[in-house]
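Comment thread on ticket #2218

A.B. wrote:
> Attaching the input chain for the structure job we discussed in standup.
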Amino acid sequence: MRQVYFDNAATTSIHPRVIDRMIEVMRDVPGNPSSTHAVGRKAKSLIENARKTIAKQLNVTAGEIIFTSGGTEADNLIINSCVRDLGVEQIITSPIEHHAVVHAVEQMENQYDVEIKLVDIKACGSVDLDSLKNLLKASAKKKLVSLMHINNEIGNMLDIDAVSQLCKKNDALFHSDMVQSVGHFKIDLQATPVDFIAASAHKFHGPKGVGFAYIRKNSKLRPLIFGGGQERGARAGTESVHNIVGLEEAFKISYENLDQDRKHIQQIKDYFKDSLKAKVPGVKFNGNCGDNDKSTYTLLNVCLPVPPEKNLLLLFQLDLKGIACSKGSACQSGSDQGSHVLNAFLSDEDKQKPSVRFSFSHENTKDDVDYTVDVIKQFIEEPAFSAS
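C.D. wrote:
> Ran it. Output below, let me know if you need it in another format.
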């Protein structure tokens, strides 16, 4: 059976160069990075070189990069410590954040009685900046604003420069989950004064289980995990050297090939969008994902005109045909509650229709698109479902 992978927003394949580099490190560098002998120092030097590689690309200092197990840990470290250690009394966020932020914020509300304010969401699924401005001005409480750069379900892009300026003007801390943008967009954290970001290697063809937090210097955040003094005291535990080096290699490759890959992936997205419009009358594109100026080039979230009696069968049929995609975030797959992101702004009518996220990488082809669109078209047009 043909296999088509359109779920790159959930995770990407590991680049062959990354695998080779990780194997090399696992084979040749057995030392503990905290050991002071030559073997340990070699492992430590690999970690510090990786830190410098990332810092240089993001235009920050190496000491501001803290390696974590991924984006979720980075988000939790930042949000928790801002409340516990920096005296944040109010968190301003949105109802369409990743669950790593949504549930971390809920925990802060329950544990520390922090006040939570939600910005308004426009009909297109974007953050209403006027609402943010009003919330920032509404009280003198110390605030943390936590808004993701690119929404992982609908691809809407936050005007991160405008938000950072609003936060700076109102003396608020600004955290942005950049899991869907690091490795896919050029980011200059000096030009855009964000205080904290989170990133994850497996979103840009690196290994799972490793990521990093950017923590602006002198922020005085304290760790979530206590023990040794690893990661400049910000995250205890022996570092996973091969994973960190794998992250570095994937990071380098993504920025070496950024323009070329972006051009190819944008063409795949546009071809997918045009093919659906031509072959599936009534198709809609959720949020701003149909607008290339307001969304990432890496995904489409599609609302399909499927009869109600066939709704629940769509993803099953796509899977039977070898097509990997998602009804939303992979972190909530299996839930029967639907997408909290789509529920925040879709009309009642569109909520009754199946919405599917297709997300792309440099490995996808137009043949993948043709096959997928034909499967969707056939499914919609068939009077009765058939698993054959």
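A.B. wrote:
> Thanks. Noting for the ticket: The mean pLDDT is 95.
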